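Appendix C. Worked example: Pyridoxal 5'-phosphate synthase glutaminase subunit Pdx2
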Amino acid sequence: RNAFGRQNESFEAAVDIRGVDGDPVEGVFIRAPWVESVGAGTEVLAEHDGHIVAVRQGNALATSFHPELTGDHRVHSLFVDMVRADRTPESL
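Step 2, the predicted output written as structure tokens:
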């Protein structure tokens, strides 16, 4: 938390996310953390200024920014697609 600074240092930045087509997503970073490292089975989806800001493991998705604060629903669509793809008959 606060890896990019305090709340008054919040910012927006374009973020290219693997799996999200089109233009970069506008990331709203508010008291945002970043990911220091990832282990086996975790996929880095995006970086900003050399820091990991979006990761995926199975049907779990984590971002350092707030995709819900923009009108762009592509990150949410990615998450829904991930969950749908991970469904098995046993999970229904």
